[in-house]
Amino acid sequence: QPRIGILTGGGDCPGLNAVIRAVAKSLMRQCGAEVIGIEDGFAGLMEDTPRVRALTWDTVSGIVMRGGTILGTSNRADPLRSAADTERVLRHVAALGLQGLVVIGGDGSMSIAHGLAQHGLRVVGVPKTIDNDIPGCERSFGFDTAVATVTEAIERLQTTAQSHGRVMIVETMGRWAGWIALEAGLAGAADVILLPEIDYDIEAVAAVCRAREQHQRYTIICIGEGAKPIGGQYTVRATVEGSPDPIRLGGVAHALAAALQPRVRSEVRATVLGHVQRGGSPTPFDRVLATQYGNEAAQLVMAGTWGRMVTLQHGRLGSVALADAAHGNRRVPLDDPLLRAARQIGISLGEPSV
Ligand code: F6P
């Protein structure tokens, strides 16, 4: 009877449970596999005693709509950081009798999976992140849900902005990629969308607000957390004394508000959506995508096609070598049709007027 391990690594996102369910059910039904859930990502394999639990048909049933991950996850566990950790992980995998491992994670987890594959581990990856920035994959599950959450937030900000005639700035997650800000900004009818890929001109942003003060009275600005002004510095993360990790401070919306306020007449307010974007129940789209990814990962496992990450390219399900997904991130290309559409319908991307 085959024995396959499964873990979720890195930041959580809606749809993880739908993947776990699909991987496990597919493997159980099609080849009678025993599926072993590893707790808290790679951390569960790095400790002296591995933390694992057998998954049953029942434990993976009824979870498709649940946010987060039933297995738990960890951000910082990287078994490649030391040879002893790498060796311990490989030893545990062998001792548990796992013939292979399904790793559901973002770019960090894919690069760990790739590194472990080079040490002989048989692994299949599933791309996960609300940021939608994994190389070789045009849509990661979790992204659609995050966009829906941000869109709803922008709609709520619209009504209060209208009532007060204010400039409302909403900051989205996405790290160095502007996908969430771009798609939610379009869906929520933001007037200005600022992305990490296009440094913004504060005067151009202020000019939009001033023009709207004359007629509509209010302005909605959607800004990705990795955006910065022309000539400015990234403020996406800051180190807080006493914290083991650099933590999020929600810098960019407040920095923009401070720069904008002296340039406009109306009051400026900033909202940082933060981890709200990662929580809650996945959208139907994400549930379906996650189910397809999970099932596809199981097919790769059963075919013995290791060292690959399942993916969606040009709308088609497939897989890419882990090596191709392991490095860098997929940012919004400057010729992306969504950018063109935004400009053409009069949304400002903060570009200087020529
Ligand atoms: O990569 C997903 C993500 O939510 C990013 O959008 C964000 O910058 C980061 O993770 C937040 O990480 P943490 O939960 O460690 O603050």
TrEMBL record:
GO terms for molecular function: 6-phosphofructokinase activity; AMP binding; ATP binding; diphosphate-fructose-6-phosphate 1-phosphotransferase activity; fructose-6-phosphate binding; identical protein binding; metal ion binding; monosaccharide binding. The record marks G108 as: Important for substrate specificity. It catalyses: beta-D-fructose 6-phosphate + ATP = beta-D-fructose 1,6-bisphosphate + ADP + H(+). It is found in: Cytoplasm. Substrate binds at T129, I130, D131, R166, M173, G174, R175, E225, R269, H275, V276, Q277, R278. Its main location: cytoplasm. Keywords: ATP-binding, Cytoplasm, Glycolysis, Kinase, Magnesium, Metal-binding, Nucleotide-binding, Transferase. Mg(2+) binds at D107. Catalyzes the phosphorylation of D-fructose 6-phosphate to fructose 1,6-bisphosphate by ATP, the first committing step of glycolysis. Homodimer or homotetramer. Belongs to the phosphofructokinase type A (PFKA) family. Mixed-substrate PFK group III subfamily. HAMAP family: Phosphofructokinase_III. This is ATP-dependent 6-phosphofructokinase. The lineage of its organism: Bacteria, Pseudomonadati, Pseudomonadota, Betaproteobacteria, Burkholderiales. The gene is pfkA.
